[in-house]
Amino acid sequence: MNVEVIAADESVTLRPDDSGRQFRVLDEFVVLCNIDRRGVVVKVPAGFDTDLASVPRVLWSWMPPTGRYLRAAIVHDWLYKTATMPRKTADRIFHALMIRFGVGPARARLMYSAVRVGGRGAWE
């Protein structure tokens, strides 16, 4: 499967909840992808709540929930919540978005591998 990000909103506005662990998307966030030569639009609606990157707290000093991968994590959370496409496709979009937003290839591959291994419970 070939996934390419064609366009993505460059910014997203978030508001943290009182715990600081959940964030509300305040404006719609849109991504246009090419998946096996088929255009796919992903729209994360205003009002969606996300925990950003679901990184275990013990790893936050190395990989906090925010970073260049923040927008990719929001889209990934939305795709997991809605299950509008296969899980593997959602994970591939996550990887492609990380690369688009400047995450280094090694870190993007590591995070992609982590969601492939650890994301099954969240998907189900």
Could you give the topology of this structure?
Layout: E1 3-8, E2 14-16, E3 23-25, E4 29-35, E5 38-44, E6 49-50, H1 70-82, H2 87-100, H3 105-118, H4 120-123
Antiparallel strand pairs: 1-4, 2-3, 3-6, 4-5
Helix pairs in contact: 1-2, 2-3
Q: How would you describe this protein?
A:
- The protein is globular and about 40 Å long.
- The protein starts with a strand and ends with a helix.
- With 124 residues, it is an alpha+beta fold.
- A three-stranded antiparallel β-sheet has the order 1-4-5.
- It is built from four helices and six strands; from the N terminus they run ββββββαααα.
- Helix 1 (70-82) packs antiparallel against helix 2 (87-100).
- The protein has one domain.
- It is 36% helix and 23% strand.
Search tags:
124 residues, 6 strands, 3-stranded antiparallel beta sheet, alpha+beta
Please describe the biggest sheet, giving its number of strands, its sense, and whether it closes into a barrel. Answer: 3 strands, antiparallel
C-alpha geometry:
globular
Overall average pLDDT: 90
Gyration radius, to the nearest Å? Answer: 14 Å
